[in-house]
Amino acid sequence: MANIGTIKSGAKKALTPREIVSELDKYIIGQDEAKRSVAIALRNRWRRQQVPKELRDEIAPKNIIMMGPTGVGKTEIARRLARLANSPFQKVEATKFTEVGYVGRDVESMIRDLTELAVNMAKKDEQKNIDSKARNMAVERMLDLLLPEKKDPPLNENSTEQLNEEKRADIETSSTRNKLREMLIDGKLDERFVELEVSNNHTPMVEIFSGSGIEEMEFNVREVFGNIFPGKKKKRRLKIPEAMEVLYQEESQRLIDMDKVTEQAIQITEQNGIIFLDELDKVAGTDSYGPDVSREGVQRDLLPIVEGSTVTTKYGPVRTDHILFIAAGAFNVSKPSDLLPELQGRFPIRVELDSLTMEDFIRILTEPQNALIIQYKALLATEDIELEFKDEAIHEIARIASEVNERMENIGARRLHTVMEKLLEEVSFEAPDMPEKKITFTKEEVLDKLQDILEDENLSRYIL
Question: Which CATH class is domain 358-454?
């Protein structure tokens, strides 16, 4: 898949907005306007990398607010977008943050978390580059365990004869080592056990701080304690494949240039990072009493991060000027206009997502690559159960989910999960012991299993 977030200009072909929408269509039904908006925002990142350097820093990302009820695809759009861009992606709830002085998380923690994700991504990329060398080194270390070197005895008067014997022994050892190497690579030694020294890095932690602000101190405290309590090693008896994986990881850590990884991670965080800020509508009020006292404070703390500031992380300072922020919320009580004017100005693109209809539910059940029915078929196939849903059964599932959403809280496509779980509850429980391996659902069977829920509103409130 093309990497639209590539930093090196022209390193890879970027997806066009039309191609981005086409990719999103494989997983998300409807919401065409939202898909177009995020596709343009993502393409603009690539465009920004093509402009002259003196102008590049002046082009700010076009942050987006997605408005719509729960379960209509807001989170899924942002998550799939990050995968298309091969970008570090962090989902956070605005309600987890509080202004300084109230119990809650510091807003800068989301940048630290994003940087941590970027470091892991950069480390995986680097690990691919040194994979072959690390595996060869792990094989050699395993051979050292299987065939330890003999200590040289002191030379005696017949030193020439002894040297010849040692030379013959070395040739034999080399031949044995080569045979062992072949057996090891072919998997013929997989059932053997070896004793291996492994690190036991459990750093004792003492909770000294509490409340907001702990993130600022956490990484320093960990480093200090890590130096005071160096990692100990203990011997473990492992099968050769498990031991090989341990040795491979140790050799990978030695070969990976963490300075290079850190530099790349900070760069992709600053240039490619995406933060999905959910439940923004929950902090959009301006009440100054009761539990909502910190709403406006949270907005004021978010403002410099979204505008562009420098956040200190354990990997170094990270600029937030070009991180893409996608905010979302139902906005059924509050409105985007209830946000601070300065914060509103940092989210120039507004997209309203539509509520899902029964027809949408039918498509969600069958069309996407990860469609619910495909998921359940795959799950029960592990028990050798073949599931089949008649078209009228799928229509009935969609109708019931839609009707329950209308009667009670509208939770969008998530309602399909609860309906499907109830429908397949008995099959899922009995699957390992069922003699009948093919199960077909018809409209009548769907109605039979779910009709009671529709008729008893109190029961449906608890179950669905």
Answer: mainly alpha
Answer whether residue 5 shows pLDDT above 70. Answer: no
DSSP reduced 3-state for 234: strand
Both tokens assigned to 42: 């993502």
Query: What is the CA 66 to chain-centroid distance, rounded?
Result: 21
Q: What would the pLDDT profile of 65-98 be if each residue is shown by its tens digit?
A: 999 988 899 989 989 998 888 889 999 988 888 6
The mean of the pLDDT values for the chain is 81
Measure the CA angle with vertex 359, ends 357 and 362; round to 5°: 115
CB within 8 Å of 18: residues ≥ 6 apart? 39
Calculate mean pLDDT across residues 121-144: 88
d(CA 4, CA 16): 9
How much is the pLDDT for 211? 42
Radius of gyration of the chain (CA): 29
The neighbouring-strand residues paired with 319 are: 310
Confidence category of residue 63, pLDDT binned at 50, 70, 90: very high
Q: What is the DSSP string of 87-105?
A: --EEEEEGGGB--TTSSSB
Instruction: Report the pLDDT averaged over residues 381-392.
Output: 93
Q: Give the other-Cβ count within 10 Å of 145's Cβ.
A: 14
How far is it, in rounded angstroms, from Cα 464 to Cα 209? 41
CA distance 451 to 422: 11
Q: Kindly state the tokens that stand for 21.
A: 């929408």
The 10s digit of each residue's pLDDT in 303-314 is 999 999 999 999
* Phi (first) and psi of residue 128, to 5 degrees: -65, -35
Where in the sequence of the chain do the CATH 1.10.8.60 domains occur? 358-454
Cα–Cα distance for residue pair 122/86, rounded to 1 Å:
11
The larger pLDDT score, comparing residue 382 to residue 174, is at 382
Q: Which CATH number is correct for 63-122+266-351, 2.60.40.10, 1.20.1260.10, 3.10.580.10, 3.40.50.300?
A: 3.40.50.300
* Inter-residue contact 436 to 385 (CB < 8 Å): no
Burial label for 436, CB within 10 Å (0-12, 13-18, 19+), is exposed
Pick the closest to residue 85 from 350, 269, 283 (CA basis). Answer: 269
pTM (two decimals): 0.77
